[in-house]
Predict the 3D structure of the following.
Amino acid sequence: MRRLLNVKPRGGVLLFLSVLPFLALALVYVMASEARHAINPSDKILPTLEAFARAINIMALQVDQQRGEILLWMDTQASLFRLGVALGLSMLITLVLGLLLGLLPALRALAGPIVTAIAMAPPIALLPILFILLGLGETAKIALIMIGVIPCMVRDLTAHVRSIPEELLIKAQTLGANTWHILTRIALPQSLPRLIDILRLQLGPAWVFLIAAEAIASDVGLGYRIFLVRRYLSMDIILPYVVWIALLAVTLDFLLAQVNRSAFGWAHPKGAR
Amino acid sequence: MDALKLTQVWVEYGSKIVLERVNLAVSPGSFVSIVGPSGAGKTTLLRLLLGQEAPTRGKAMLFGEKLRDEPGPDRGVVFQRYSIFPHMNVRENVLFGLECKGSPVFGHLGGKKRRAALDEVDAMLASVGLKDARKLYPAQLSGGMQQRVAIAQALIMKPKVLLLDEPFGALDPGVRADMHVLITDIWRTNGLTIFMVTHDIKEAFALGTRVIALDKARHDAQAPNRYGATIVYDVKLDRKANAVPPPEIEAMAAGA
Ligand SMILES: Nc1ncnc2c1ncn2[C@@H]1O[C@H](COP(=O)(O)OP(=O)(O)OP(=O)(O)O)[C@@H](O)[C@H]1O
Ligand SMILES: [Mg+2]
């Protein structure tokens, strides 16, 4: 008998194993849904597949009478815009702070403790403050995502910059590099692949903050819609929306991983994973 | 004038004395091999020469001037590992020093200046036997090739002093022999003063014009940090004589 850790599935088996949990989940759902409908034909908690099809048609394919747009598309655009602006700005701020804090001990002494302290404050608790200060518009929602993800990103990137072998920094100095050279030509390029990985890790929390902000004060967005239809127990809309959000998140993560691999080949030598 | 002159130099980390009473005068063009048991302070001595460490007592002079307490382009260095930048290919690695020199703000050369610099880089790469590896990244190079890049990178700055910390320690014997030929050649043609730390006594004697050994001269069993290492052995060699290590230093290395 081979050890279990040496059994590596390949080809068809690999594919089968990967889709098996999805199939199982779908099967369990359909069975549970039918059981409920057998008792109560107007059950709203676990809608039938036909009900989903109807809801998806209304949300994703039909133009809404009041808004004059397709609702799912409108919500997706609004949410992705907020997420994109927030994450883009977060990356920029992280890059600047992470590089400076990681490379300059004097700045680390000054700003390290306060970054740690801010990272400890739960962002959702700050949401009311943001709404009071910034109003109920886009700014507050974007700010919440940024406040939620930036401290972790900065701490992670700072640690990464600090882990650059001292030998490399010494070597650069013996080649006549000044602080600025080392920042822009050594630390910056060595940080970019890591920055993308950090962003991937923060996608989950970023979605949480986005949905939370949209749920509380918004008139469009994926989170807004879910919390709106919750009042009518519209599971036939909520569940497809959740699946759609998961799909968006997975796609984003996949794209970032691809960008990382193709743009920074030096950090992913062949043979290594 | 001496290339290096250490007078009664001490290096201490807090209460731990690493080096004590180190006196050394090295004439320009010497190839100094530094040997000694692990933890004796060989790397510490190199860090001192690099300017990473300042002597806690005593005086360190390089070519008649007080040793700067920061690494600089007058002293090149090659470490056992992490000597080259993983995100630059071979050419970019060697070009980096010229770019820093030629462009203090951007660290980038363009146009004619870049072409001239690249010609210089390519000539340097050819002289260390890396003509065909110019476009490769460090992760794609063997250990010996990586050290060649590191040497080329240091040499392009035309340093007066080259500091090597176990530069060939991780290489196979055959590759190591090639590197010995290369470094001897470079040392001769550039008139460098070289300090090389090594664990290989044969290598120390085969390459060096001078071999110094660091070790503790005094011991206190109750307080091992009380005394530091110093130069316990110092011999000048004639390189052509193909020197063989004397028995007492072989014994010291074996006891390490
Ligand atoms: N930053 C530091 N703080 C405290 N002690 C240190 C520091 N750096 C080195 N030491 C100590 O100084 C002593 C000499 O270290 P060093 O690295 O110079 O030895 P070495 O001769 O190069 O050893 P090896 O052959 O293993 O490389 C060691 O005992 C080490 O623990
Ligand atoms: Mg050492």
